[in-house]
Amino acid sequence: MSDQSEVVDAINALGAQLNEKHVENTDALEEIKADIKELKAGFPDDDPRGHRDFHDALIAESKARRQFWVDMRNKLIERGMLAAIGLLATALFFYAKAQVGKQ
């Protein structure tokens, strides 16, 4: 019978160890839940996803604004070059016309 009582004692000891580990895990889980709750409280309306979406929208708006000004600058350069070419062509035309009129 001593073999049976040793097995029973070993099983009981293992059960006690499992119970202790379960209590430790449950306590750790509660701490993690509290930490998550505290982290979420740092966001407006406890909504980190909405906060992320807000920042994504700001980033997209910033990129769009930057692209607008790049496009605006490129259009101004293009139109300025066309205006300069047009002015040079007009000046050349009037110069050629003046030279032909002298003869």
> What percentage of amino acids are in beta strands?
under 5%
* Alpha-beta classification: mainly alpha
Mean pLDDT across the residues is 92
Largest sheet: none
Describe this structure in words.
With 103 residues, the chain is mainly alpha-helical. It folds into two domains: 1-41; 48-103. It has two helices and no strands. It has helices at residues 2-41, 48-102. The longest helix has 55 residues, at 48-102. It is rod-shaped and about 135 Å long. The model has no long low-confidence stretch (mean pLDDT 92).
Summarize it.
This protein has helices at 2-41, 48-102. It is mostly helical and 103 residues long. The relative contact order is 0.04.
Question: Key features?
Answer:
rod-shaped, 2 domains, 103 residues, mainly alpha
Q: What is the element layout, followed by pairings?
A:
Blueprint: H1 2-41, H2 48-102
